[in-house]
Amino acid sequence: MDLKDILSPDCTRSAISESSKKKVLELISQLIAPKLAGVSKSDVFESLLQRERLGSTGIGLGIAIPHGRLENAGHPVAALITLKQPIDFDAIDNQPVDLIFALLVPKDNPEVHLKTLSAVAARLNDKECCRALRAATSDSDLHEHMISEPTSCN
């Protein structure tokens, strides 16, 4: 699945000031819920929280990929956020997080979920891409860097 198909400009926020994991997950829920007919902010938030209870989605190097599956989601939707100040996200390397890519997918399609997570993780494993994302000065720059071809992340 192509990232531009699941990440819209209005679900992208650069340099926000949230100061806790919970606040970030609430913001993600506010961004994503309107994109999914029949899904509420609390549905999205609960799905993300439920996954975090299984173990942190902080994958290290200042990156988190919170994700969840929703019963009523008709298609995958993503949000991308960078933070002004890194926050504790219980990451596997115990480092604070400042780059967050969230993904919500239909509950009945685990294959799409895993393939999309894998693609996002590979993209965020590119140090130059992460540097460009962190350096983005606007929501639109952030969005463009994420959906562009990997070679243009430089």
From TrEMBL:
Lineage: Bacteria, Pseudomonadati, Pseudomonadota, Gammaproteobacteria, Alteromonadales
Gene responsible for this protein: ptsN
Molecular function GO labels: protein kinase activator activity; protein-N(PI)-phosphohistidine-sugar phosphotransferase activity
Protein name: PTS IIA-like nitrogen regulatory protein PtsN
UniProt-listed NCBIfam families: nitro_reg_IIA (TIGR01419)
Organism: Aliidiomarina halalkaliphila
Single GO biological process annotation from the record: phosphoenolpyruvate-dependent sugar phosphotransferase system
PANTHER family on file: NITROGEN REGULATORY PROTEIN, PTS SYSTEM FRUCTOSE-LIKE EIIA COMPONENT-RELATED
Pfam family, one: PTS_EIIA_2
Domain PTS EIIA type-2 residues, every copy: 5-149
InterPro entries: PTrfase/Anion_transptr, PTS_EIIA_type-2_dom, PTS_Nitro_regul, PTS_SugarTrans_NitroReg
